[in-house]
Amino acid sequence: MKKILPVLNLLVPALILAAAARAQNAAHPARPPMPKPDATDQWTPVPPVVNVPAATGIPSDAIVLFDGKNLNAWESTDRANPAPRWTLEPASRAVVVAPNTGDLRTKQSFGDVQLHIEWRSPAEVKKSGQGRGNSGVFLMGLYELQVLDSWKNDTYVNGQAGAIYKQFPPLVNASRPPGEWQAYDIVFIAPRFNADGTLATPARMTVFHNGVLVQHDMVLRGPTENRGLPVYKPHADKLPLSLQNHGGDAVAYRNIWVRELSFPPAPPVPNIPPPPYAPDPRPAGKKKK
Ligand code: MG
């Protein structure tokens, strides 16, 4: 017996350890080998190089639509007088809306774009609400990003600066005071239409106002309408971009450039819920447009 005890002292713990190891292996079977890191590398296509000189901030693949020198890239929507007649303001490399001269639209047509545009409301505030520095950037001449002096200016929220007009208010009001230059940086995805004219995918818009995100990949309900709900109608893949002449409000523009983009058609999106339209809740005496 004395000879067996030392053997048992060794054997029993060994058996216990082996049983524990078997139990652990059963609970955690050996992992398959990990894939190599380069199994998920992508090498092509190589993104094109775009240079952005610090002096101008304009990407090398951008089309400059206005640099303050002339309006060669533009025409008037006034058919009787197609030459652009807005006023050049050389000191600030700007162009200013002039009364009774129509909208300006680009000679070139665009579809999907990244657009940079700077604008300035008149320094002197004369009217209120929608009458205060009203203009607009119309992507494809149809889809308006509102331009308005929205510095302490009461109006309907889907009509203030940064709104996709009558469709989506901006996330925040990033407006600067009247007379100061402001910037919009816009990503616009054009709508796609099927061969039979039905809508394949709606337009989408993302907007930064003075560098602040105000619209994030919004799905547009249709072209801008001042009255009634928007309804998509088939149109060309590319159309001119236009700037609104709203009653001659002396809004100025400068430093306008565009990069043409080309995205594959986006997947169809579900129906968009109706917006919370509501009448002006303010007392009758305080109502303004
Ligand atoms: Mg407008």
Explain what the structure shows.
- It is a single chain.
- The chain is mainly beta and 289 residues long.
- It contains one helix and 15 strands; from the N terminus they run αβββββββββββββββ.
- The strands form three sheets. Strands 1, 3, 4, 6, 9, 12, 13 and 15 form an eight-stranded antiparallel sheet that branches. Strands 2-5-14-7-8 form a five-stranded antiparallel sheet, with no helix packed on it. It has a two-stranded antiparallel ribbon with strand order 10-11.
- A hairpin with a 2-residue loop joins strand 12 and strand 13.
- Magnesium ion binds at residues 134-136, 146-147, 244, 246.
Q: Compounds present?
A: magnesium ion
- Helix segment count? 1
Residue ranges: pLDDT <50 for 5 or more in a row?
A: none
Shape-level CATH architecture of the domain at 63-260:
Sandwich
Number of strands: 15
The named CATH superfamily of the domain at 63-260: Exo-inulinase, domain 1
Radius of gyration: 30 Å
**3D shape:** elongated
Largest sheet entry: 8 strands, antiparallel
Q: What do we call the CATH topology of the domain at 63-260?
A: Jelly Rolls
Indicate the CATH class of the domain at 63-260.
Mainly Beta
Distance between the termini: 107 Å
Structural class: mainly beta
Order of helices and strands: HEEEEEEEEEEEEEEE
